[in-house]
Amino acid sequence: MVERNISNKGKGEKRLIGVAWPYVNGELHIGHMAGYLLPADIYARYSRLKGNDVLMVSGSDCHGTPITVEADQKGVSPKEIADHYHKIDQDLLINTLNLSYDIYTRTDSSNHEQEVQKIFTTLLKKGYVYIDSQEQYYSPEEERFLPDRYVEGVCGHCRYKDARSDQCDNCGQLLDKDTLLNPLSKLSGEPVSLKETEHYFVNWEKLQPDIERYVSEKGPQWKKWVYKETKGWLKRGLSPRAVTRDMNWGVRIPTNDIPDDMRLENAENKRIYVWFDAVVGYLSASKLWSKEGGGDWKSYWYNKNAKHSYFMGKDNLVFHTIFWPGQLIGYDENLHLPDQPSINMFLNHDGKQFSKSRGESITIEDMVKNYGNDTLRFYLTQIMPENKDSSFRWNDFKEKVNGDLVGNFGNYIHRVLSIGRGSNIQAISNNQLSEPVVKVVERAYEKSENHLENYEFRNYLDSLLSITAFGNIYFNRHRVWEKKHNGDSQYFQHLKDLYYLILTSGQLMRPLMPESSDKLYSMLRVNRPELWPNNPQELENYESLIGTIDTSVKPTPLFKKLD
Asked: Which of 237, 267, 297 is the last residue of a domain?
C-alpha cells in the first residue's frame, strides 16, 4: 500500500523529497535501488508517519545521448525509446516496488520544457549565460556534429580501445580532444574531426560567490565526504559550462524569448544540455502536481521553513550540490534551496561495477519476483553504500536474510505468536509492562528517529533489529515455554512484554518493510496507530492495543528462509 498523508495534510512540516530521475535507456538494477530509490522511499514513508506534509517527486529522464544512440542503432525515434522505457520503469517503480511517489512524470513533457526554457532565458537576461564557441567532434561523412556518446577512441591514459570521448570506462579518467586518440564515429566507424561551433555557456564564475555562501550554510549538515568533495570543486574554481549542444532531441532553445543580439545561428538544430534540463524536473514536477490538483506547490518552494531532501548516486553529486542550487539562485533568489543532498556511493556486484553489456546486472524485477519486496529492501538497507562503495554478494544475501531477517526478526515474532496462541488476552493485558522492556523500546524509537532524520538508514535498521534481538534473549532467559507448561502466573506477564515488543517493532519497521508491517498487524487483527509515536507517552498507546490482539489466529511466517 502506498502511504500518503492521511489526516495530517497541511499540519506538519513541508517536506519536498526529490528522487534522481533514471535515464530511460535500459532496465534498472539493484544498484539504482540501493543508491537512491530505497532511501528516498524509506525517508518519505517515515516523514509521513511523523505527520509531515510530504511531496515526493521524480520521473523519467528522457533526454541525453544514451537515448539517441540507442534510437539510431535501432532505426527508431528517440521518443519511441523514451516511451518504451518510461512505461517499463513506471510500472516497476509504482506497481512492483510500490514506491510512494506523489508524482512520477517525464522530462519530455511540455510542462517541463516550458519550465526549463523559463529558467534558461531568465539566467540569460540576468547575464549568467553568454555565447562562446568551442571545438566539437564533427563527422564529415554524416555532415553533423556528434555529441559525446557518439564518439569513441583510444584512451590516452590507459590505451583502452573503446573509450567514450568524454570519459574512459576502463580507468575512469575524464577525456578531451587531447587525451582521446583516433576518435571515430560510433555509428559509421569513420574518423571524425574537430570543428568550431557556437553555444550558450553558464558563467559559473559569476555565480560562485552565491554558491559558496549556500554551501557554507548548508554543507556542515551533509555527509562529510559530500561536503568535502563539494568544497573541492569550489576551491578549484568553477569554469564556464556549455548549456547547449548540437542535436535534435531535448528541450528546444526558446529563440523567440531571447534578445536579437543573443540569438545563436542554427539554434533549431541545438538543444539545451541534459545536465541543465533534468534537475529542473524537481520544480516542474511540483508545479504539474499542483496543476493536477495535488496541492499548492508554492507552499513547498516559497517556504523558508520547508525542508528539501534530494536522493541520488555519487555520480550526480556536483549537479545537486553546486549546479542545481546555482540555477535556483540565479533564477529566483526566493526559491527554497536544497537542504540535504542524501548521496550514496555505488553498490557493486561482488566487487565489480554493474554493467549490462558485461553481464554484471541483477534486475530489480527479478529480485522482487524471486525473494519478495521487503526481503530485498531489508538486505539492500543492510549493505547500503552510504559512505563508501559496497557489494551485493549472493552468499552474504543468504546469510543476512536467513540470520538477521528470518532467524532474529521473523523468528522472534513467530515463536511469540505461536506460544501465545489461544492464551487469555485479558489475563495478559491485566499485567504491567516491565521497565527494561519499556526502556528498550523507547531507546529504539529515539535512535531510529535520530538516524532517519540524519539519513542513516543502516543505523536505523540496526535499531529496529535491537528490539527483536532483546526479545529473543528475554524469551530464552525467562524460559517462557516452561512457564506456560507449568501454569506459572508469570507467563502472562512475560507474554505481555513480548507482545509489546512485537507491536512496537511492527510500527518501527513500517518505513522499511511496509508490506510485512501490514501483514503483521493484520495477523494480530489489531488496528495499527496511524502515526509514529512522538514521545514515550504516545508509546503507551501500544500497551492498550495488546488487549485487542486476537490470539486465536494461527500465525504464519512473515519471511521465508532462503535455500
From this structure: 267
Could you tell me which residues come within 8 angstroms of residue 337 by beta carbon, excluding any fewer than 6 positions away?
214, 218, 308, 325, 328, 329
Place of cell 507449568: 486
152 grid coordinates: 569513441
Residues paired with 56 in a beta bridge: 17
Burial 117-132 (b: 16+ CB within 10 A, else e): bbbbbbbbeeebbeee
According to DSSP, residue 360 is labeled: B
CA distances from 327 to 215, 319, 479, 522, 558 (A): 14, 10, 63, 48, 47
Indicate the Cα dihedral angle 483, 488, 491, 494, nearest 10°.
Answer: -90
Q: Please enumerate in sequence order all residues whose Cβ is within 8 A of that of 277, keeping only pairs 6 or more positions apart, or say none.
A: 63, 107, 112, 116, 250, 251
Q: What SS3 string covers 280-345?
A: CHHHHHHHHHHHCCCCCCHHHHCCCCCEEEEEEEHHHHHHHHHHHHHHHHHHCCCCCCCCEEEEEC
Which stretch of 5-14, 308-317, 461-470 has the lowest confidence by average pLDDT?
A: 5-14
Whether 194 is covered by a domain: the verdict is: yes
H or E segment to which residue 133 belongs: strand 129-139
Within-domain flag for 383: no
CA dihedral of 4, 5, 6, 12, whole degrees rounded to 10: 170
278 and 257 within one domain: no
The grid coordinates of residue 129 equal 549565460
Closest by CA to 38, choosing from 23, 17, 24, is 17
Same domain for 284 and 259, yes or no, is no
DSSP state of 35: I
pLDDT band at 356; cut points 50, 70, 90: low
* Cα-based distances in Å from 304 to 115, 282, 334, 342, 355: 22, 17, 9, 20, 41
- What does the pLDDT look like over 368-420, one tens digit per residue? 999 999 999 999 999 999 999 999 999 999 999 999 999 999 999 999 999 99
The enclosing H or E element of 32 equals helix 30-32
* 344 phi/psi in degrees, rounded to 5: -105, 155
Cell of 329: 539562485
Q: Do 404 and 538 share a domain, yes or no?
A: yes
Distance in angstroms (rounded) separating the CA atoms of residues 200 and 242: 6
259 and 278 co-located in one domain: no
- Which tens digit of pLDDT belongs to each residue from 261-288? 999 988 999 999 999 999 999 999 999 9
What pLDDT is attached to residue 301?
Answer: 98
Closest alpha carbon to 257 in 138, 118, 446, 421: 118
How is 195-259 classified by DSSP, letter by letter? EEEEEEEE-HHHHHHHHHHHHHHHGGGS-HHHHHHHHHHHHH-PPPEE-EEE-SSSEEP-GGGS-
**Which uninterrupted H or E stretch holds 536?**
helix 536-545
Range of the domain at 507: 394-548
pLDDT at 7 over 70: no
Length of the chain: 563
Q: In the 8-state DSSP scheme, what is residue 439?
A: H
